[in-house]
Amino acid sequence: MDTRFVASLLAIVDEGSIAAAARRAGVTASALSQRVAALEGDLGVALLRREGRMVRPTHACSRLLPRLRELMRLEGDLRADLRGHGMAGTVRVGAISTALGDWAAPLLRHLRATAPAVDLRLVPGTSSGLLALLEAEEIDVAVVVEPPMALPKSLRFKSLLNEPIGLLSPAQGPSDKLPYLVYSRDAWGGALCWSALNARVHDPAVLVEMDALETIAQMVEDGVGQAVLPRWRGLSRHAPKAQFAPWPDVHRTIGLVHRLRDLDSPLLALVRDGIGGGRLDL
Predict the structure, then answer these.
(1) Who has greater pLDDT, 81 or 216?
(2) pLDDT digits (tens, 9 = 90+) for 149-195
(3) How far apart are alpha carbons 64 and 52 in whole angstroms?
């Protein structure tokens, strides 16, 4: 199996059309079509189907995609090792929104300085959604809230820091008359905040509930209500005048989830070092 043909197939699947994939690869659309046809001949199955102007993977292709992507990742690692180092290839990093705000810029600066040949792809999402992407081999590492359940044996969680949880109130301070803007109880971090709030306030008046910490912080800044939130580094950018009062012994743990087989991966170490350079102990 020619891995160039596999790369062409993946490009078509990612772009959704042969023409767009051809522009990305710098080859003709007919050349890509010939490569896919050769790959279909090798595998003995149809891999693509047309839907109007778009191209979609067949059921057989969808089943093969995780292993084909892993094949390309392994080839990239092999080529990097043959060049005498592991600092090349693509690393796909998923992260919750607050982690992206805190660490995307330091990570990019670190990569430019130490590994300019590495192609970084950032994927935003919720903690549970990113875990699903990691299990599906669609990202390489995820920056998430510590999972509240046991992970599959193939995955590992490494904590990076603890963010204090407390009451965020408008500039004039907390008030029993202010309703609560609730960090979604379906989110892993939101469940922690809701539990902490219920331990201190009986039957809190809820104005709105959402999994959007930055928006909640801005609404508190505007005096709409108060909220129980973790104090992430970027909180002060969204609510510079709001007051944050941490509650004792309550925190949200942020860390990396990665596949066990990548434990010694140089690309994983690169991400870990880049994020570590941007962390702020609270």
Answers:
(1) 216
(2) 999 888 999 999 999 999 999 999 899 899 999 999 999 999 999 99
(3) 23
CB 170 within 8 A of CB 242: yes
| Size of the chain, expressed as the number of residues it contains | 282
**128: its two tokens:** 């549970």
Name residues whose C-beta falls within 8 Å of residue 150's C-beta, 6 or more positions apart in sequence.
none
Question: What does the pLDDT look like over 34-48, one tens digit per residue?
Answer: 999 999 988 889 999
Q: Which phi and psi angles does 128 have, rounded to 5°?
A: -65, -40
CA torsion through residues 114, 268, 73, 11, sign: negative
Q: Where are the alpha helices (DSSP H) in 121-201?
A: 127-135, 188-200
Model confidence pLDDT, tens digit, residues 236-280: 999 999 999 999 999 999 999 999 888 888 778 888 888 875 443
Domains and CATH numbers, the chain: 3-64 (1.10.10.10), 89-161+254-278 (3.40.190.10), 162-251 (3.40.190.290)
Nearest 5 degrees, angle CA 174-CA 178-CA 181? 100
Structure tokens at 105: 């810029």
CA distances to 180, 210, 224 from 241, rounded to whole Å, are 18, 22, 14
Written as six digits, the tokens of 134 are 């990691």
Written in H, E and C, the secondary structure of 76-138 is HHHHHHHCCCCCCEEEEEEECHHHHHHHHHHHHHHHHHHCCCEEEEEEECCHHHHHHHHHCCC
Beta strands 54-57; 48-51: pairing state: antiparallel
Instruction: Indicate yes or no: pTM above 0.85.
Output: no
3-state secondary structure of 280: coil
